[in-house]
């Protein structure tokens, strides 16, 4: 599974609504505004945009930016970070799917024994 641009947004997810301007988002994560633009160009995240084209970062974007900072501190380059984020997203999706199956299995009646 690859990390697609805009894949951080989940419909109905209140954390996906873009509310922070780039200056505020940069301050919240302790990065420069140019870094945020670079990460967007590299496809690591896609902040929302106003009708006028101004970037608006969501709470989910802030979480991703903090994760990018952690991975950079570990020595990963942007390509490595892209792979790591994609694998983490895939892992999360698989865990959710597994949880749905295991929750459904609890509701099922036990199989009849011969």
What do you see in this structure?
With 114 residues, the chain is mostly helical. The protein has one domain (14-106): Multidrug-efflux Transporter Regulator, Chain: A, Domain 2 (Orthogonal Bundle). Helices cover 54% and strands 4% of the residues. The chain has four helices and two strands. Helix 3 (59-73) crosses helix 4 (78-107). The protein is globular, with a radius of gyration of 18 Å. The N and C termini lie far apart (42 Å). Mean pLDDT is 85; it is low at 1-11.
List the helices and strands and how they pair.
Blueprint (H helix, E strand, L loop, with lengths): L21 H8 L3 H9 L6 E2 L5 E2 L2 H15 L4 H30 L7
Antiparallel strand pairs: 1-2
Helix pairs in contact: 3-4
Q: Any idea what the shape is?
A: globular
What's the mean pLDDT score?
85
Instruction: Evaluate the radius of gyration.
Output: 18 Å
SSE pattern, N- to C-terminal: HHEEHH
> What structural class results from the helix and strand content?
mainly alpha
DSSP E strands, number: 2
Report how far the terminal alpha carbons are from each other. 42 Å
Attribute tags:
disordered N terminus; mainly alpha; 2 strands; 114 residues; Multidrug-efflux Transporter Regulator, Chain: A, Domain 2
Quick structural overview:
By secondary structure, this protein is mainly alpha-helical. The chain contains four helices and two strands.
């Amino acid at each position: 599974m690859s990390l697609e641009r805009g894949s951080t947004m989940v419909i109905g997810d209140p954390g996906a609504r873009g509310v922070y301007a780039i200056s505020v988002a940069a301050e919240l994560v302790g990065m420069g505004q140019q870094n945020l633009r670079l990460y967007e160009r590299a496809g690591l995240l896609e902040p929302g945009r106003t009708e006028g084209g101004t970037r608006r970062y969501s709470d989910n974007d802030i979480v991703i930016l903090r994760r990018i900072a952690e991975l950079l501190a570990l020595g990963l380059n942007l390509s490595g970070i892209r792979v790591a984020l994609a694998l983490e997203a895939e892992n999360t999706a698989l865990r959710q799917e597994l949880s749905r199956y295991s929750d459904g299995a609890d509701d099922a009646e036990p199989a009849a024994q011969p």
